[in-house]
């Protein structure tokens, strides 16, 4: 573990800078694996779920953002308690009626490029395309529901650090506190190399209070629009992970049983979708699997939309945790 004084000094040396400029490079040794341990809270899986469920047929998993049914139930209980409190505090006669009228959400974005020399040093144009993709996904520009969430790029930081780039899971507890900007309604988006089968990961809104500087989304740089990962290079890994950051679960949360993803208009789904099947219906409850939803695991080329219910959930969770 690096002494705190050294960490503070480094933080001062690596500020986020206005878009289009470069920040000084940073180089540090490893810290304790605090990030990994903290992430463990968010990423606990049901014990029965085999690892293979989280891989697509060509070896890429979106992330490890699954909650056990018990964890999701606990989150929902807390969320509903907060929302009920807000409604009783004079925000309207009913939770759904008052929150449906919520104002559009505008999210400031600090984009942090972690690279190793030329590797992963994505261009400003690519970053702009990623922001545009988020705005299209969350603004209904894809033909899906308009979630009324928009994203504004505030600044880009660039950090040349081969160690962080080579193992961002290990160094998450190092780079996030040093690069993080803003508060609970600010999105910190980190692009870096993610080895193995992952395309990214996120933190959930209800984790912000206990660990604010770890808040944010990490994506594989080659998943950005025009990137090099075949079938996963339209920028929807960021769309998917930001969905978690906004409080959405996977469409296959809880499988065919229980409360699912707590969104009524996304039919229950037993397993993550691999590739891009034209049709899949894995649960006895009504409705085909939402294979084209951003919160499933299909190819980017297969993903087309959020639903109105997901938009409502985003606004409810935002009201409770990020407003
Ligand atoms: Zn996910």
From TrEMBL:
Keyword Transit peptide: no
Comp. bias (Low complexity): 19-34
Stretch list, region Disordered: 19-66
Keyword Nucleotide-binding: no
Domain Peptidase M43 pregnancy-associated plasma-A, first and last residues per copy: 232-317
Keywords: Disulfide bond, Hydrolase, Metal-binding, Metalloprotease, Protease, Signal, Zinc
GO molecular function: metal ion binding; metallopeptidase activity
A Pfam family recorded for this sequence: Peptidase_M43
Sequence ranges of Basic and acidic residues compositional bias: 35-44, 51-66
Protein family according to the UniProt entry: Belongs to the peptidase M43B family.
Protein name: Peptidase M43 pregnancy-associated plasma-A domain-containing protein
Species assigned in the record: Actinomadura citrea
